[in-house]
Design goal:
Strand content: under 5%
Number of strands: 0
Distance between the termini: 48 Å
Oligomer: single chain
Structural class: mainly alpha
Number of domains: 1
Length: 292
């Protein structure tokens, strides 16, 4: 990418950070109920950064790193995405904006905060990501690559249930055996619905963006998506809360590792099935051509 392109990227990252700060000033703050203990919410102590008066600079640094990585992953993916420039950004922003939005809803289960509050906070998290995605698509991405690898949509859609099932399996192992913080016992239905919804959405993210991965090998594709495309974003999301609150970092790290490993397995199995379905479809086409 040219120097001009990197300059545009830096400007878009700055816009994302500014918008993120603004919308989080407007949206209701999680501290209101978490620290007051209303509505049965768990009372969380302020983080060391808050107690030292360093939250604002730490948040800004964290935001610049988060949105910088978000832009870097887009630059890697967009070359082979089979869409026009603006649409590359729209799908990218929707994919990860949705991930952060659904991710925020887990706080209502674990902390007992009002669901309406987390819905607003989810918008505050998702909106800057969506706007950044659109801007990256419009001003940084390249025209559609004529050599982009496009696979059968019917075959690719199998990735969504595969990833969802593996994600759910990993999470329930973490809930029941590793005892990560959850509402697994106190709110089993809500926990199931959130886990199922998040698993489905991670599958949707893969469905939308998998064509941007440059490797053709199932294990490589699984690792690249899970550890880089999904993993980096989910790492930054997971460790946003400890900037504000004193939290169990080992618990957060454990759930992050379980999530990433679960998605690795889901993508790997999905790629194997997609390969078989594609081969089967290709064979049927050849048979029909020969018969004709």
């Amino acid at each position: 990418m040219s120097l001009k392109g990197w300059g545009k990227t830096a400007c878009i990252v700055c816009i994302g950070v500014i918008l993120d700060v603004v919308v989080h000033q407007i949206a209701p703050q999680i501290t209101a109920s978490a620290q007051s203990g209303t509505s049965g919410a768990i009372v969380l102590s302020p983080s060391l950064l808050v107690r030292l008066g360093l939250f604002a600079p730490a948040f800004l640094i964290f935001a610049f790193i988060t949105f910088g990585l978000f832009a870097a992953v887009f630059i890697y993916l967009q070359v082979n995405l089979p869409h026009r420039r603006w649409m590359k950004g729209v799908w990218y922003g929707l994919a990860f904006g949705g991930l952060w939005y659904i991710g925020m809803l887990e706080a209502s289960l674990v902390l007992g905060t009002p669901i309406k509050q987390e819905l607003f906070m989810g918008v505050a998290d998702a909106l800057p990501i969506l706007v950044m995605g659109v801007l990256l698509g419009g001003f940084v991405s390249t025209p559609q690559n004529s050599h982009s690898r496009s696979r059968n949509s019917r075959a690719r859609i199998i990735a969504i249930p595969c990833i969802a099932l593996c994600y759910m399996a990993g999470r329930y192992i973490a809930y029941g055996l590793l005892h990560i913080d959850s509402a697994y016992v106190t709110n089993p239905l809500g926990t199931f619905l959130w886990t199922f919804g998040m698993g489905i959405w991670v599958g949707v993210v893969y469905y939308l963006l998998e064509s941007g991965i440059r490797s053709i090998f199932p294990l490589h594709r699984a690792i690249i998506f899970s550890c880089v495309i999904y993993g980096i974003d989910w790492f930054m999301f997971t460790f946003t809360m400890p900037l504000l609150f004193d939290m169990n970092l080992m618990d957060l790290l454990l759930r992050l590792i379980v999530d990433i490993l679960s998605v690795v397995l889901g993508v790997f199995f999905a790629e194997k099935l997609i390969g078989r379905l594609s081969t089967s479809s290709g064979t049927k086409v050849l048979v029909k051509l020969k018969a004709g």
